[in-house]
Design a protein that fits this description.
The protein has about 210 residues and is α+β, with helices and mostly antiparallel strands. The protein has helices at about 10-20, 30-45, 50-65, 120-135, 145-160, and strands at about 75-80, 85, 85-90, 90-95, 100-110, 195-200. The protein starts with 10 loop residues before the first helix and ends in an 11-residue tail after the last strand.
Length: about 210
């Protein structure tokens, strides 16, 4: 299965898309070591303490990347999600030449500043990690939202959470390969470069059981 934007890609990028689509899982070598860190992340979110959430998020991400032998990245947890034309910005992955890659994740909803549900927060984090893995583990030339990409993200989730967290997944409509940043009023928005990816859609309701 390919998403609608596939037909607009160049021949080179179609090949990258197909390579991404063929990989449906990333095996975590020692998932039992990560499970306690996901529990700590849940507890941190329940505390509503941003610094505690950031520490727990960094610990979990560092353990995953270390096991997968992938270069570390900078992880930052921010408070209230920015809101743009496409909805609330959940997460952002950026990679600039000469600097460590970075993940930003927001822990509070824009509508009422409520702490995001654990499952939604973790899925957002893993979505951004999956972009990093596309470049550094799979060595893809770009990181597209393919069906394989979403399956890889889900495979990470299944391996590192308590069994009680697993529920039938709701199908998520595929976004376009690139998202636009909100731009200042005095200049038009432009699409971010290929190495930058943003997440502006839900993986579940923020009313999920916490």
């Amino acid at each position: 299965m390919v998403y609608g934007y596939y037909d607009r890609l160049s021949a080179k990028n179609k090949a990258i898309y197909r390579a991404s689509d063929r990989v449906s899982e990333i095996a975590v070598p020692h998932p039992a070591r990560v499970v306690p860190l996901t529990r700590a992340l849940r507890q941190a979110l329940e505390s509503e303490d941003r610094r505690r959430v950031q520490r727990a998020t960094r610990d979990l991400t560092a353990e995953l990347l270390d096991q997968l032998r992938v270069p570390a990245l900078d992880v930052r947890v921010l408070a209230v999600r920015p809101r743009g034309r496409d909805g609330e910005l959940h997460g952002l992955y950026t990679a600039e030449e000469g600097a460590p890659a970075r993940i930003q994740v927001w822990m509070r909803t824009a509508q009422n500043a409520r702490v995001v549900a654990f499952r939604t927060y973790l899925r957002t984090l893993l979505h951004e990690v999956a972009h990093h893995l596309d470049y550094r583990l799979l060595k893809l030339g770009d990181s597209y939202h393919t069906e394989g990409f979403f399956r890889r993200e889900s495979s990470l989730f299944r391996q590192i959470v308590d069994p009680g967290e697993l529920r039938p997944a709701r199908r998520t409509p595929a976004p376009s390969p690139r998202r636009e940043r909100p731009a200042p009023a005095d200049r038009p928005a432009k699409a971010p470069p290929p190495e930058e990816r943003q997440t502006r859609f839900d993986f579940g309701s923020d009313d999920d059981k916490r």
